[in-house]
């Protein structure tokens, strides 16, 4: 006897099945002869977990979420359908009858296209956890021969179909032993990250995403139905062999592969390509349908040695003949021209009838480094490559570079990228990579985090040994590794950083989840940069007793730092909007990052007196608590003097009829903001202009021709643009925010002196009316930016 497969569906039947399996819920309709009976049936169904979807007079449609195991099977099935597989199982009841004629085994997903058959077994966990897949591996090994025999029986021995068995998982951390066994048996494991990636890719590449999928999971495996022979020219340049030929774009699509920078579950150290853009593909598809052609080459790298080339004629180093392309998915990596090639997936023409050809320049087994360098060279000549993309390339290109500087940068970049995809990372899905869009949640950039890690020497430093001919070496930092292996550096630094950031993600979870939305700070570029400075300072502190951070395990190091981190965590867990704004509003410069880190360290020192770093003591000593209270009272009086003077001056100049002074002399946006505050406060006993903020006067006095009315009393700086001559009002306003919010800490002594100087000038020239000469600089010493919110 021979093995047999159960019934499969194709064509219109396949579309009908997909309409059902693509839904996230089960549905059913219940009917009854009376409203009362219908209500009773509905209540009975609701007791069983069903929910109302739609109500009619004599029937209701109910729905219920699919069981998680079936949802995974349907998601996998739907992916294969969307990728263009033409024959599939209709439901979960596809049975395989063994060659003995009696054994029967159920198969979860069966999908066939012209060259391949995929059979996928699925397993899941309710929550992310380690789980053995030994049972599935045993099942696959047991049915493999029967599956192949059944496929040959159904489609014929001459069909040349490639049969692949795989496992799909969701929320499963596959054990190392199982993963190694699966790899040895060439059984790919398709994770939920892979499913998400390829589901997204099908929306971009349509059915052509199938070849990306097959290129991933059938890499290095021969597929007889893919072999293609065509006329070509062979040449050599710089020791590298290349071929030039014309080919059907549909033939090339089958073996082409683009290594995207989007997130997948694989660590592909040769990834470099930008995600293709659907809008551009659509326009190219329309161009093709209108008869458009492309005069330039698509550049590919055929990643195989010893290509078969039958020479017909020779011309020196050049030869013409017949080239046989490998029968392997993913063997032709696209270096340049991905949009031109994949535009054919958007064209309306039928692949079997299309006679289009594209011009191809194909390199033979170009090394990965040279391939990436060629990509950068081509694209930097055409369009500037984004810094984030360059960093992603660096993380691959330089990981084993002999230059320790390049190696360090690559290690930092790879550690950050890994944190963006690791399930256990508090930064998972929050780092913007090429092909992803920025949101308040996904707001972190690779460039900023790499700069922060490198700038604080956390992973390592490059040092030149003593001696005239000494070569620079990479010395491990506190998060580095004592070995010289980049993989060890990456693994340890990533683990340390994830554990450190997890303290904040878990302890101040609501704040962490905000990202850069209103009220968020920690999980932003600037917030993490400040935390990296804090981490460096804390490590330096705990190492004072001789402890060496690099000799500790990541868990031991973070456990040592945890007591000193907790005060900062608790501060942000309870922080008000104004307290968070104090950190956010300082600015984006490195100086501002350092100031915010210093403020965090001050929070630690206030809760942990043993945290006595000299710079913290100096910072705290520079604060003037008593002077801050005095400055607060001075600023309140400055505000009152400015209000009285500005209102009186505008009324005298523009008149009070129908509030002409208010309409004509005050900028529109200031009036709008003031009206909002006035209406919000709801105090009708006050005039609306009594809701002016101190900062508003800096705009009013320089508005249009108003400066002529105020310059003889408000110009404390001498010469310069009028906006800059009134900047003291803005600085006093920012200092007022500190003096009226105790959580922002006291002013520094320099800031208190500045307030006193401004107060004296306001009393003398604005309140009493003594004119300034406009040439003499009366205000010299400005406060440092520390704590001002700039």
Overview of the structural elements:
This protein is an alpha+beta fold. It has 29 helices and 24 strands. It is globular, with a radius of gyration of 35 Å. It starts with a strand and ends in a 23-residue tail after the last helix. The C terminus is likely disordered.
SS class: alpha+beta
β-strand percent reads: 15-25%
Overall pLDDT level: 86
- C-alpha end-to-end distance: 82 Å
Number of helices: 29
Radius of gyration from the CA trace? 35 Å
Give me the count of strands.
24
| Strand order in space, largest sheet | 15-19-16-20-14-13-18-17
Query: What's the overall geometry?
Result: globular
- The helicity comes to 40-55%
Low-confidence segments: 265-273, 783-790
Query: How is the biggest beta sheet arranged?
Result: 8 strands, mixed
Lay out the secondary structure.
Elements: E1 4-5, E2 9-10, H1 11-21, E3 25-31, H2 35-47, E4 51-55, E5 59-65, H3 68-82, E6 87-88, E7 94-97, E8 104-107, E9 109-112, E10 116-131, H4 134-155, E11 162-174, H5 176-184, E12 189-190, H6 192-205, H7 209-217, E13 228-237, E14 240-247, H8 249-255, E15 256-257, H9 278-289, E16 298-302, E17 308-315, E18 318-325, E19 332-336, H10 338-342, E20 358-364, H11 368-382, H12 387-397, H13 404-421, E21 431-432, E22 444-445, H14 446-455, E23 460-463, E24 473-476, H15 486-507, H16 509-513, H17 525-542, H18 554-574, H19 577-584, H20 590-607, H21 614-621, H22 625-654, H23 660-665, H24 668-681, H25 696-700, H26 707-714, H27 722-725, H28 727-739, H29 749-767
Parallel strand pairs: 10-11, 11-12, 15-19, 16-20, 21-22
Antiparallel strand pairs: 1-7, 2-6, 3-5, 4-5, 6-9, 7-8, 9-10, 13-14, 13-18, 14-20, 16-19, 17-18, 23-24
């Amino acid at each position: 006897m021979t093995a047999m497969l159960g019934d499969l569906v194709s064509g219109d039947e396949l579309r009908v099945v997909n309409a059902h399996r693509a839904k996230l819920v089960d549905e059913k309709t219940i009917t009854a002869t009376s409203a009362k009976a219908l209500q009773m049936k509905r209540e009975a169904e609701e007791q069983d977990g069903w929910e109302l979807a739609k109500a009619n007079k004599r029937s209701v449609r109910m729905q219920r979420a699919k069981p998680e195991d079936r949802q995974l099977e349907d998601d996998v099935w739907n992916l294969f359908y969307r990728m263009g597989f033409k024959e599939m199982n209709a439901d979960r009841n596809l049975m395989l009858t063994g060659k003995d004629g009696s054994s029967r085994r159920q198969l979860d997903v069966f999908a066939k296209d012209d060259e391949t058959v995929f059979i996928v077994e699925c397993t899941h966990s309710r929550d992310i956890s380690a789980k053995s897949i030994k049972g599935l591996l045993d099942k696959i090994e047991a049915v493999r021969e029967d599956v192949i025999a059944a496929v040959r029986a159904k489609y014929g021995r001459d069909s040349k179909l490639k049969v692949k068995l795989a496992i799909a998982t969701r929320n499963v951390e596959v054990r190392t032993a199982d993963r190694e066994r699966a790899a040895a048996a060439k059984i790919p494991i398709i994770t939920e990250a892979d499913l998400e990636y390829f589901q997204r890719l099908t929306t971009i590449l349509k059915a052509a995403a199938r070849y990306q999928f097959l290129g991933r999971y059938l890499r290095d495996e021969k597929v007889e139905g893919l072999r293609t022979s065509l006329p070509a020219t062979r040449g050599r340049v710089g020791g590298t062999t290349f071929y030039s030929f014309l080919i059907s774009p549909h033939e090339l699509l089958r073996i082409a592969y683009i290594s995207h920078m989007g997130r997948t579950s694989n660590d592909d150290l040769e990834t470099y390509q930008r995600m293709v853009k659907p809008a551009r593909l659509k326009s190219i598809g329309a161009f093709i349908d209108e008869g458009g052609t492309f005069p330039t080459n698509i550049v590919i790298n055929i990643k195989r040695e010893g290509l078969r080339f039958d020479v017909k004629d020779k011309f020196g180093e050049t030869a013409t003949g017949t080239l046989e392309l490998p029968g392997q998915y993913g063997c032709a990596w696209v270096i340049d021209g991905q949009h031109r090639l994949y535009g054919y997936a958007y064209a309306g023409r039928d692949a079997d009838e299309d006679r289009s050809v594209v011009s191809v320049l194909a390199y033979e087994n170009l090394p990965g480094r040279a391939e990436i360098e060629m990509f950068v060279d081509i694209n930097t000549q055409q369009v500037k490559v984004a810094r984030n993309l360059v960093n992603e390339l660096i993380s691959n290109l330089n990981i084993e570079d002999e230059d320790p500087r390049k190696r360090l940068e690559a290690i930092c970049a790879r550690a950050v990228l890994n944190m963006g995809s690791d399930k256990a990372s508090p930064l998972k899905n929050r780092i913007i990579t090429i092909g992803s869009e920025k949101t308040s949640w996904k707001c972190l950039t690779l460039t900023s985090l790499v700069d922060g890690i490198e700038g604080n020497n956390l992973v390592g430093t490059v040092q030149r040994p003593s001696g005239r001919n000494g070569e620079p070496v990479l010395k491990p930092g506190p998060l580095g590794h004592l070995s010289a292996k980049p993989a060890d550096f990456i693994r340890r630094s990533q683990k340390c950083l994830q554990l450190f950031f997890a303290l904040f993600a878990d302890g101040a979870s609501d704040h962490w989840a905000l990202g850069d939305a209103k009220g968020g700070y920690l999980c932003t570029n600037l917030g993490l940069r400040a935390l990296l400075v804090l981490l460096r300072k804390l490590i330096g502190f705990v190492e004072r007793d001789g402890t060496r951070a690099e000799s500790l395990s990541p868990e031991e190091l973070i456990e040592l730092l945890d007591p000193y981190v907790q005060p900062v965590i608790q501060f942000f867990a309870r922080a008000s909007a104004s307290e968070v704004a104090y950190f956010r509003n300082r600015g984006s410069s490195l100086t501002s990052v350092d100031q915010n880190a210093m403020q965090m360290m001050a929070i630690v020192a206030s809760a942990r007196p043993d945290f006595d770093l000299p710079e913290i003591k100096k910072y705290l000593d520079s604060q003037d608590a008593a002077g801050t209270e005095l400055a607060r009272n001075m600023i309140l009086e400055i505000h009152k003097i400015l209000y009285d003077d500005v209102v009186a001056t505008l009324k005298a100049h523009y008149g009070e009829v129908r509030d002409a002074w208010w309409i004509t002399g005050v900028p529109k946006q200031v009036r709008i903001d003031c009206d909002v505050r006035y209406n919000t406060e709801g105090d009708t006993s006050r005039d609306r202009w009594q809701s002016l903020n101190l900062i508003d006067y800096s705009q009013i006095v320089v508005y249009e021709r108003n400066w002529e009315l105020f310059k003889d009393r408000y110009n404390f700086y001498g010469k310069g643009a009028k906006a800059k001559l009134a900047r003291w009002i803005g600085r006093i306003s920012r200092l007022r925010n500190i003096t009226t919010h105790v959580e922002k800490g006291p002013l520094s002594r320099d800031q208190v002196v500045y307030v006193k100087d401004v107060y004296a000038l306001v009393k003398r020239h604005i309140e009493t009316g003594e004119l300034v000469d406009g040439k003499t600089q009366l205000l010299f010493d400005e406060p440092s930016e520390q704590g001002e919110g700039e």
